[in-house]
Amino acid sequence: MRWHRALAERARSYGVQIETICLVPEPPAPRMSFDELDLRWRRRDPALVRLREKLIEAARGADVFWNFNGANVHPAWLPHLGTFNVYGCFDDPESSDQLSAPVARYFDAALVGNLACLPLYRGWGLRRVAWAPNAFIAEDSVDGLTPEIVRSEERPIEVVFFGERESGWRRERLERLAKAFPDAVFHGRGWSSGYVSDSERRRMYRNAKIGWNLHNSVGPVNIRTFVLPAAGVLQIGDNKCRLGEVFRLGEEVVGFDSVGDSMDECIELTRYYLAHDAERRRIAANGLARFTRDYTEPRLWDYFQQRFGEWIDAWRKEGPTAPQWQPPARASLIRRVARRGNRALARVGLQIVRTRPAVPVERRESDAPESRTVALAWAVASLVGDATRIADLGTDGGRFAVEAAADPDRTIVSSHPGRVSVEASRGNVAFLDRRVAAADGPFDLAVGVDVLDQREDFRSFLQGCAELAPRLLVTTGAPSGARRAREWTAGELYWVLRCFYARVDLYALPDPLVPSVVAVDVNTTLSPLIASCGDPLR
């Protein structure tokens, strides 16, 4: 609460009319999961009743209620506030099941900290969704630092990483980095060096050349995303294409993609920039300049207030569009246990399924085809690797092409006859109103998103792909509502592709609305699937 009060006090100094309210019924205490919140509200827990009354009183006369951390507000309370209600969350997708998924759709809008999770919220049915840069870093800011200083100064610390190493998702990756760079500085939960004070952390950042940024799942945005460039540190971060939406790749930040446990690209990039100090300084200085221009707190508050103003204007014209809370039927204990077990099993490509006829499994609003297509295209982009000449053969409205083109070293020729349904394009994408041909190349990668399910003549399509480029990324499991010529199991997909390529690796999205992939085998029941193919059989 002290941090939030300080944030609000600084905002008021910029002219923002803002007040804070603590949404913990009996502080200090951690946030509640939705199951706990809902159970306590059903029982009319006196502490929650008092919190609701306190919130209604605080909202009186306000225009906007922003649930900044997305917790401890039951959706049944929202109609009584009289405000435009904005859901905020910086913990997706790791905490979505018990934080954002049960409640976000009942708000009028959402500000989402993780760029990669915008399709998730739109798939839940929210009409107004925007990115919320998590750049509130006053405690880590370095006074007086300029791009000119970064370009000219020496820094004694080669590499730093401040963050936990206990989660299985990144433990092995961090241990690989620690082994490859024994002089790197690591601090945080799970490291033998433990924590350091705020002042010592600032000192280390101020003297570091390179800082790594790794996420527990799909990124790219966390506090480090902004702390590193603000301190003049060259950021080498994962989730490359999404990172390219925040800073310019190769100019203000360096990105890599790591699927599975491979960290080879990150290690190679780190060694390169340690050996090429002038390039490191240039990119780090540009990152600081970009932070200063776009991500300081006064800039952020200008951005948020503009968003609120646009949303409220539309809201007043259209009237409320968010559904009101209706208590759902409680899932059976067996179904709840299976659902939680599936979240863990999804990481290894497995799912608990029914073995006897049963009532149809309830479908989430998140099955929106548009959001599923966006998430799938973004996920495919994370598997591009070192390809620089790409033929895009998909039917996804150009989403993959625009996403992959965040890397300026890539050139993409995209076949999308008719209107390209993307909001923006890039200079390194050429959209064609016909099919991509070999004469448009040469290409080192062909990509087909949402193509294979819709092709009757998949054999001729795959033969054409094998002749077009030495590698292929192709998906199956098209979004709901798309026309399908056929549906594929993982085994069928694998063995058909093996008729055309000597190497086929399968991946899947555990959540079709989150662009994060896991390696799977032919027995997986996950969908959609992505196949990475190489070594065409001539």
What would you note in describing this structure?
The protein is α/β, with parallel strands linked by helices and 538 residues long. Helix content is 34%, strand content 15%. It is built from 17 helices and 17 strands. The chain has helices at 2-13, 34-42, 46-59, 118-123, 147-152, 168-180, 198-206, 223-230, 240-243, 264-275, 277-294, 297-318, 333-345, 369-381, 399-404, 458-468, 490-497; strands spanning 64-67, 84-89, 109-112, 129-131, 157-162, 185-187, 208-213, 234-237, 254-255, 389-392, 411-415, 429-432, 445-448, 471-476, 501-508, 518-520, 529-536. An 8-stranded mixed beta sheet has the order 12-11-10-13-14-17-15-16. It has a 5-stranded parallel beta sheet with strand order 6-5-7-8-9, with helices on both faces.
